[in-house]
Design brief:
This protein is an alpha/beta fold and 406 residues long. The chain contains 14 helices and 17 strands. The chain has two domains: 134 residues, Aspartate Aminotransferase, domain 1 (Alpha-Beta Complex), CATH 3.90.1150.10; 255 residues, Aspartate Aminotransferase, domain 2 (3-Layer(aba) Sandwich). Strands 4-10-9-8-7-5-6 form a seven-stranded mixed β-sheet, with helices on both faces. Strands 13-14-17-16 form a four-stranded antiparallel β-sheet, covered by helices on one side. Strands 1-2 form a two-stranded antiparallel ribbon. It is globular.
């Protein structure tokens, strides 16, 4: 491990603790990341010194809290290279962002017979909201297939889109496979028939640079807790003209300009979509996490995690009977695999006894498991604090557990 990333690892206090008497090896970053001390401190400082509601008070404490909250919006805008803070809506996470688009933009603009295309590798949060919409208004939901390497075929998408296609909703990086999809090229294909494009960026944003204007996506969603920030905070980016035309998703305080019993006038963007007291400390923590990532450098993170991925792939090949699930040419720091004769849940339980936290699950991507004809996979997903020693620990523990189970 190089010195820079060794120092980064030291910033995560949870990694100093032991699990079952062993030093913790955390390899479940695809589910949630650990938090550096600076993010924890930013949240603690807010509650200890800055706590007040935002947008509502004329006293100093409220004004300072508002400055921090709106400063977090500007930090997020810069991170995504959005054109304006009016395009940055704070939500609870990717799940709420996608539901917002489904129930506001799509339900307003789509009608029976219109088509939404998703891919076979989507997380449930990018499947179920569209199924709900299908049942509500009668749209058609089509699935772009993947090959047995876990890759989307652009030619297949070219053949699927038509004048009836109104939205392409696609993950930038698969949580179950690690596949990095060519979303910019996919957006061009969708836009050629007038369709909008939504990108699920939950897995991508901690691992690679994201420029929503370069991607030319219409909607982009991220979750703070995947990218070293707090839980319960996320972002929906949307092009300003789309947000302007969309009706509110929820009603209540802060999303209004004026209210009478006869009529409500809605607030300007982005507040029209932020009903109620927001997750103020979440936004502050997210902004600190973004600064953490920017100071390291997303290209440098991507390069380092590519080294981890290559090393882990080579080491795991040493285990007889191990089969990789998903071997895309463009892949992030996620490895899913099964071991012949061993149930993934049994293996993950034994891994925990060695202090190794990794996921055995369908990863909220059951159609992916159905494609590869497995009930679940073991998944090791990497973050900036992982190192080659973590991978060596994993391989040794897998070998030992396999000997016990077979």
């Amino acid at each position: 491990m190089n010195a820079k990333f060794a120092e980064i690892r030291s910033q995560f206090p949870i990694l100093n603790q032991k699990e079952n008497g062993q030093s913790l090896v955390y390899l479940d970053n695809g589910a949630t990341s650990q938090k550096p001390q600076r993010v924890i401190d930013a949240i603690t400082t807010y509650y200890a010194q800055q706590n007040a509601n935002v947008h509502r008070g004329v006293y100093g404490l409220s004004e300072r809290a508002t400055e921090l909250y709106e400063g977090a919006r500007e930090t997020t805008r810069q991170f995504l290279n959005a054109a304006s803070t009016r395009e940055i809506v704070f939500v609870r996470g990717v799940t709420e962002a996608i539901n917002l688009v489904a129930q506001s933009w799509a339900r307003t603009n789509l009608q029976a017979g219109d088509e939404i295309i998703i891919t076979e590798m989507e997380h449930h949060s990018n499947i179920v909201p569209w199924q709900l919409l299908r049942d509500q208004i009668g749209i058609r939901l089509s699935v772009l297939p993947m090959n047995d390497r876990g890759e989307i075929c652009l030619n297949a998408l070219q053949g699927m889109v038509s004048a009836k296609t109104k939205l392409l909703a696609v993950t930038q990086m698969s949580n179950a496979l690690g596949t990095i999809n060519p979303v910019k090229a996919m957006a061009q294909i969708a836009h050629a028939v007038g369709a909008k494009v939504l990108v699920d960026g939950a897995q991508a944003t901690p691992h690679m640079p994201v420029d929503v204007r370069d991607l030319d996506c219409d909607f982009y969603a991220l979750s703070g807790h995947k990218m070293y920030g707090p839980t319960g905070i996320g972002v929906l980016y949307a092009k300003e003209a789309l947000l302007e035309a969309m009706p509110p998703y929820q009603g209540g305080g802060d999303m209004i300009y004026s209210v009478t019993f006869e009529k409500t006038e809605y607030n300007i963007l982005p507040y029209k979509f932020e009903a109620g007291t927001p997750h103020i400390e979440g936004a502050i923590g997210l902004a600190e996490a973004i600064r953490f990532l920017q100071e390291i450098g997303l290209p440098e993170i991507a390069a380092y995690e590519a080294q981890l991925l290559a090393y882990a792939t080579d080491r795991l090949k040493e285990i007889e009977g191990l089969r990789f699930i998903g071997q895309a040419a463009e892949k992030g720091g996620v490895i899913s695999f099964v071991i012949e004769g061993v149930h993934p849940h049994d293996m993950a339980t034994l891994m925990d006894q060695d202090g190794i936290a990794l996921r055995a699950s369908h990863h909220c991507a059951m159609p992916v498991m159905q494609h590869f004809k497995v009930p679940a996979t073991i998944r090791a997903s990497f973050g900036v604090y992982n190192n080659f020693a973590d991978i060596d620990r994993l391989v040794a523990a897998l070998q030992e557990a396999k000997a016990m189970l077979l």
